[in-house]
Specification:
The protein is of the alpha+beta class and 80 residues long. The chain is 21% helix and 22% strand.
Length: 80
């Protein structure tokens, strides 16, 4: 995969090049997750639901607009 350099727009936005979007299967309007890395880079990936409390990606469910993993749900149930 070749590296692509882009300038930020005047409002500090960034456009992902069409060839990259097509290669990744990203469609207009889809959500992405943007995470800073420890070395100062940004990791951009297709959105994956995460637990609101612990950040886990596995066994995550949505309840009343809150995403929560099974483990945190169990802990919450025990606490209540």
């Amino acid at each position: 995969m070749s590296m692509t350099s882009k300038k930020l727009t005047s409002s500090a936005g960034l456009t992902i090049p069409k060839d990259l979007r097509l290669r990744l299967g990203w469609k207009p309007g889809m959500s992405v997750d943007i995470d800073p890395t420890s070395d100062g880079a940004l990791l951009i990936r297709a959105h994956s639901p995460r637990c609101r409390f612990c950040g886990a990606y596995e066994n995550v469910h949505k309840y009343k607009d809150i995403t929560i993993c099974t483990e945190c749900a169990k802990e919450m149930k025990e606490a209540i």
